[in-house]
Write a structure and sequence with these properties.
The protein is an alpha/beta fold. It has 18 helices and 15 strands. The longest helix has about 40 residues, at about 450-489.
């Protein structure tokens, strides 16, 4: 059996993905998303910045066995730095598993020569993993420990230091003593899962699955089975608890006694999940059971503004501030997109946005999610907007998402703007496009100057603003009609 660091990383993130990578039908995979390709390019730039002017050697072979042999030859020669080396070691067995032959393969970003004896002489090597993440995630540390383990087997001693280099360039030390046992356990668990070729159950995670090439395949299975992971609020731990009491389907969750559910999940969580399941089964929007006693009405204005931002977080720029103006008094609607055509124009579009919204001092500014509020405060400070003027703008912000989560339950799998607006009949002109794709388009615009890409981003942003308007109008009507019904009853 062959176990690579990539397979082990995917196993830690999703056991099913590791299984499909090994045994799955490749025709069920989708092509790699543009956003993942963008991340790879950014990671490559990050690696080149780390290497800087440091001279390095790089194995030339394409296959693992030959590349591993070249890497060992470079280590034996005592070169200072090895880039894209391959560490490979064969084991006759692995404790706790039935495997008789195991080959472990690792690809550390860099191997650096250090003083201290090894089988090569008075030097040894330590691994450096350069990752694009912001935080030293456990799976990153596990893979770094995997490289350390292989190095110890190959060079005859453990490195003194194992490091992660992340986006902020600050190195993070990996505690070898702490992660050694965890690595052994993870390898054992991975082998025992993959060796019998028994396919793990589907579980759709909103945070981790959307970029996976197996997502469409797994999602189709989950939909066909009405899988509980499609219910907002059902986490892996809660799913395990539900299975333990025989609740395995959407319908059974909707019908099980709330008291019985509450004994295992807690009363509030049980009520939340059951109401969500019932909303999906019956395909209806309903009052949230645990909503506040008094319903706060959504503000109205003769002029209303609907606001959405497009940002490129890796370049730390907010490049599009979109505003959809609805003038009820003059029956006029118009979209205004303040676009930074270069990275240096962020300050320019910020001033244009401030001047525009200041023209309508009484207009509420509707948005969806806390990001807009946080960004306005940050941009205002960054570009020296007078605090009083900034506060007047920020004070008019109205987050529609708060009305949804406080008062209503929708028959949706996610409480994103797109899922809610789609549920209410609103459709984006750019079908199948996500915010991740617009980030890729903006990068491509900066590289190519293809204005069609910029126009597509603006259309997408306008649809986000219009969707916020559509959702606001629908919720306003719903709240008003329900309040009238309650008064009459």
């Amino acid at each position: 059996m062959l176990l690579s660091d990539d397979l082990l990383l995917n196993f830690k993130r999703c056991e099913r993905r590791a299984f499909l990578d090994l045994y799955g039908d490749r025709t069920e995979q989708t092509s790699e998303k543009d956003f993942l390709q963008k991340l790879r390019k950014e990671n490559q730039r990050q690696i080149q910045e780390y290497l800087g002017q440091r001279p390095y050697h790089e194995p030339a072979a394409a296959d693992w066995e030959t590349c591993a042999a070249e890497t060992e030859a470079l280590m034996a020669a005592g070169v200072e730095c090895i880039y894209r080396g391959v560490l490979l070691y064969h084991f006759d067995q692995w404790p706790g598993t039935p495997v008789e032959q195991l080959t472990l393969v690792g690809k550390p970003t860099v191997l650096l020569r250090q003083a201290g004896p090894s089988r090569w002489g008075k030097w040894h090597y330590r691994p450096i993993s350069v990752k694009l993440g912001q935080k030293p995630k456990p799976e990153y540390k596990l893979v770094a420990m995997f490289h350390t383990f292989l190095l110890e087997a190959i060079q005859g001693r453990s490195p003194r230091l194992t490091q992660l280099i992340l986006r902020a360039r600050r190195p993070h030390r990996v505690d070898v003593d702490l992660w050694a046992d965890k690595l052994q356990e993870t390898i054992t668990d991975c082998i025992n899962l993959l060796l019998p070729e028994l396919e793990p159950e589907v579980f759709i995670s909103r945070q981790r699955c959307h970029l996976c090439s197996w997502h469409n395949h797994c999602y189709a299975i989950a939909q066909a089975d009405n899988h509980l992971s499609l219910v907002p609020g059902v986490t892996p731990n809660r799913y395990e608890s539900l299975q333990g009491i025989g609740v395995n389907t959407l319908e059974s969750l909707a019908q099980t006694s709330p008291k019985h559910l509450g004994q295992h999940l807690g009363a509030d969580i049980a009520m939340q999940l059951q109401q969500q399941a019932r909303a999906i089964v019956h395909q209806e929007v309903v009052w949230r059971i645990n909503r506040p006693n008094k319903t706060q009405p959504i503000p109205q204005g003769s002029v209303e503004l609907f606001f959405d931002i497009e940002a490129e977080p890796d370049r730390n720029v907010d490049y599009l501030l979109g505003v959809y103006l609805v003038d009820h008094q003059n029956q006029r609607e118009k979209f205004y997109g303040f676009v930074a055509e270069t990275l240096e124009e962020e300050g320019k579009i910020w001033q244009e946005f401030v001047e525009f919204v200041t023209q309508f001092p009484e207009a509420p500014i509707f948005h969806f999610s806390p990001y807009e509020r946080d960004t306005l405060n940050r941009l205002g400070k960054k570009y020296g907007t007078p605090p009083q003027q900034l506060q007047k703008i920020v004070g008019r912000l109205m987050d529609i998402h708060q009305w949804v989560t406080k008062y209503l339950v929708f028959p949706v799998e996610s409480y994103s703007l797109k899922a809610l607006a789609n549920c209410l009949g609103y459709q984006w002109r750019e079908q199948g496009v996500s915010g991740d794709q617009t980030v890729c388009w903006y990068d491509q615009w900066l590289e190519t100057g293809d204005r069609q890409l910029l126009e597509a981003i603006v259309r997408y942003n306008e649809d986000d603003c219009r969707a916020t308007h559509h959702l606001k109008q629908w919720i306003t009507s719903f709240l008003e009609s329900q309040q009238k019904t309650m008064v009459l009853s």
